[in-house]
Design brief:
By secondary structure, the protein is of the alpha+beta class. Helix content is 39%, strand content 20%. The strands form 3 sheets. It has a 7-stranded antiparallel β-sheet. The chain is globular. Bound molecules: 2-oxoglutaric acid.
Length: 315
């Protein structure tokens, strides 16, 4: 009797989660095709950003390869913006290393990690409360970045995720989770930026990417992106199919990497040295309606006012 009940409960759960999945996919498709994204495409078309030559080059590379990389200072010439980010990175690094030392001696570290991806320490993880006039948010709404994201996605995007990451070296463990090849589940319209805050060589777990594997690229049909689809293919088979085409982003501190992570990517497999970076994700309103969740909320405006695409990205 008990066994039967358990089986019955498992079946009901399967049906319920199957229905839930279908509901999520249907909500996403509806918002992508008709509701939220249509409105945000319309806003973009009415007020397209004016890009300069550097932004245009990044946009062209992103369109062709699914990624683009350049020195942060080439994109954002105002040195104080970099100085602020670098200082933020340094204090996060110091706090994290102090926490890891406490953890190593059996104490409470107070470090933030996400379940399933414990190998990355995050400044915010979920539930950050950011003020509009917080210097850390200023970079995130910097038009040099946001205009590019919107031009690439062809709509007014939402800033979904902002964070600093510290990946401690883990020796030669097995690759886990996002250290393995995968497509991100968040959205079909997705752009991430990773800004290296330390020099990253092979031992610091560089980001890696398969060019032209995002939707629209010639490798899109390899285990293609689907809402809630299978996003981790068999690793050996994938390696065989991409046949050495992956790019490894070993690069100096101050490098920014833009990429569409609907394409295959992996990273953060730091073996000997820590990796510290800042990361942002822009996606479409449809994603926030169905597939993803912001990792921050706005705590208050303190008299700062944003308008147009910048306000839209944060609300
Ligand atoms: O840590 C990395 O380099 C990869 C991160 C990643 O897979 C992701 O942000 O989706």
């Amino acid at each position: 009797m008990h066994r039967q009940r358990t089986r019955f409960a498992a079946r009901i759960n399967r049906i319920a989660s199957g229905l839930e999945r279908r509901g999520v996919v249907a909500t996403y498709e509806l918002h992508d095709r008709l509701l939220a994204n249509r409105a945000s495409r319309w806003r973009y078309t009415r007020q397209p950003p004016a890009l300069d030559a550097v932004q245009q080059r990044v946009l062209d590379e992103l369109g062709r390869e699914g990624y683009a990389t350049l020195p942060f200072s080439e994109l954002i010439g105002n040195a104080s913006v970099w100085d602020e980010l670098e200082a933020d990175g340094e204090s996060f690094r110091a706090e994290t290393e102090a926490g890891l030392t406490r953890e190593g001696s059996g104490g409470e570290s107070g470090l933030r990690r996400r379940p399933g991806k414990e190998f990355v320490v995050r400044k915010y993880a979920y539930g950050a409360r950011l003020e509009l006039d917080d210097p850390r948010l200023r970079l995130r709404t910097n038009p040099r970045l946001l205009d590019l994201a919107n031009a690439y996605l062809g709509l007014w995007s939402k800033l979904e995720y902002v964070d600093l990451w510290y990946t401690p070296p883990a020796g030669e463990e097995e690759r886990r989770s996002s250290q393995r090849w995968h497509r991100d589940f968040n959205d079909r319209h997705l752009l991430k930026a990773f800004i290296y805050l330390v020099d990253v060589d092979e031992e610091a777990g560089p980001f890696e990417y398969v060019p032209r594997s995002a939707p629209g690229g010639e490798l899109e049909s390899l285990w293609p992106w689907r809402p809630l689809g299978e996003n981790y293919p068999p690793q050996d088979e994938l390696a065989e199919r991409i046949d050495g085409r992956a790019v490894t982003f070993t690069a100096p501190k101050g490098t920014i990497i833009f990429c569409n992570t609907c394409g295959f990517h992996r990273g953060g497999f730091a073996t000997e040295k820590p990796r510290v970076l800042a990361t942002f994700t822009w996606d479409s309103p449809a994603s926030l309606k169905a597939l993803s969740e912001r990792n921050y909320e706005l705590a208050g405006a303190n008299g700062t006012r944003l308008e147009g695409a910048r306000a839209y990205a944060l609300t």
